[in-house]
Write a structure and sequence with these properties.
Radius of gyration: 16 Å
CATH class: Alpha Beta
Helix content: 40-55%
Number of strands: 5
Number of helices: 6
Structural class: alpha/beta
Low-confidence stretches: 1-8
Length: 161
């Protein structure tokens, strides 16, 4: 990880990682923008608390499995980002509410300068995170947010980013 002076000079594009198809679009867009502007990609994965709290050992096992899955996904995506940009991304793994942890991370890390999200293009709307951050939580952001249509192809992204 770069030292603080280097990270403040380098534009960091943050992508919130989940299992959605549109997240792949946001990640490619962020990687291409980072590549073309001398920036860097950061990825945040938030493990949301399991509802199953009846037995501690079962809850601990579920948390450990979720963490292992998150780490595997982050590593797989980090490889893809490295292939696109020539450098490894910054990885963040947190537990809690996705929106709250995202806002905390943005407040804590001055190197993060742009949030990149992709909107779901289906009937269900743009997605809960995009809806929240373009609605009542917009005032809590200290950085610009880029919302990419989730229907963009790799070729579309490569031509505009």
């Amino acid at each position: 990880m770069p030292d603080n002076a280097d990270s403040l000079e380098q534009r960091v594009f943050l992508v919130v990682v989940d299992q959605s198809e549109e997240m792949e679009v946001a990640l490619r867009f962020a990687a291409r923008r980072a590549q073309h502007t001398g920036g860097r990609v950061a990825m945040l994965y938030v493990i949301e608390p399991a509802d199953f709290q009846h037995w501690m050992t079962v809850g601990d096992l579920m948390r450990e499995e979720a963490r292992n899955e998150a780490e595997q996904l982050l590593q797989r995506l980090a490889t893809r980002v490295n292939e696109l940009t020539g450098q490894l991304p910054i990885l963040y793994l947190r537990e809690g509410d996705r929106r709250d942890e995202l806002l905390k991370l943005i407040d804590e890390e001055p190197s993060i300068q742009i949030l990149v999200l992709a909107a779901n293009v289906g009937q269900s709307g743009p997605g809960p995170l995009v809806s929240a951050l373009t609605g009542r939580f917009l005032s809590r952001l200290r950085i610009p947010m880029t919302i990419v249509p989730g229907s963009l192809s790799d070729e579309d992204i490569d031509s505009i980013a």
